[in-house]
Amino acid sequence: MQFESTIVVLGAKASKGDFNGRAYDSTKVFAQSELQEGENFAGFVSTEYSWGTSFNFERIKGIEYPFKAKAVMQIVSNGKDSKTIMLDLVPEKTVSKQS
Known about the structure:
By secondary structure, the protein is mainly β. The chain has one helix and five strands; from the N terminus they run βββαββ.
């Protein structure tokens, strides 16, 4: 199931290399999520989403964080567990980082 959501991106991390003969290449995006309402909960947390390869990190690394973006997400399952992955991320009006 695919859906779109407007999110606040707090950060991102690329990982690329080789470990024990196995290549890996991924991007993780950290987005703001609200804590559930309750007596012992308040504020926000960060939720991690997988977003393809390190190429995607290159698309957003020069943007000033945090920023708002439109995310295309998909819920996938292996039959036992389900998770939400990010298919695309389109930043709204952004400001480039100052060097």
